[in-house]
Structure prediction request, 212 residues.
Amino acid sequence: HHRGGADHRGTHDDAGAPMTPRGRRPGDEDTRERILASARRLFAQRGFERASMRVIARDAEVDPALIVHYFGSKQGLLEQCLKLPLDPRVVLSAAAQAPPDQRGELLVRALVAAWERPELQQHLLGMLRTGTSHDTAREALQRTLHDAVQPVVAGLAIDDPDRRSALVMSQIAGLAITRYFLQIPEVVALTPDEIIAAVGPTVQRYLTGPLD
Prediction:
């Protein structure tokens, strides 16, 4: 049923034409994912400023206009790249609901299990690399850490919850950076169980133990 000229755009075969979500062809999602994959890799390798839209488009084998079509701008592309494939609050739900004296170990266990998945590891690496060179990425990292830790701290009968949250975040960020980004050999060599045994008690002390 034709409702006027504005609806024609949903049927264009021209790859550069605006498409409504309902009008997307099957190949559109593949193109979008290809652009995202190239952008994540290049933002991670070169940083936000040096990874131009033209370079990203060439790597993804698409016209640069398609980046604007799908993401609006380079900033919009970065924001989509930083979206996690899963919600950290879901990953840490068991830790958030556990008895207070078990939350440290369960938090570390859940994070390490998630980080060891190859697709999430690539995502984490991209966020860490981009986060050191761009404000939007740094803010996204801070928000992700905060959103992950907050439910685990919530409901604990503790003094100074903000300080405790920050210390837990410092431990998590330090582990992620040394194992996946800097790849310090002694940290990379640890098995997940060894990490949990070493780091879990420290996180637990930050959550419920004396800080002074």
The chain has twelve helices and no strands.
